[in-house]
Amino acid sequence: xxxxxxxxxxxxxxxxxxxxxxxxxxxxxxxxxxxxxxxxxxxxxxxxxxxxxxxxxxxxxxxxxxxxxxxxxxxxxxxxxxxxxxx
Length: 87
Known about the structure:
This protein has two helices and three strands; from the N terminus they run ααβββ. The chain has 87 residues and is α+β, with helices and mostly antiparallel strands. The protein has a domain at 30-87.
């Protein structure tokens, strides 16, 4: 996607993201809602895979990547860990 206009300074910037993260209260996050959202996303991906041939599957640090015969790639993120592999 190509932008036609430029954003004003600070709009969508890393500084703006950092401000949002600083004000995030972890007590406000509902783990059950996160699980439900992840389940729904996973179900959508699985529904998309019906009738397709899987030609490649990879487990990365923070996601599972499934590639189908038509060249599409599907990502499962979930709560797979911190990105550090156990020793």
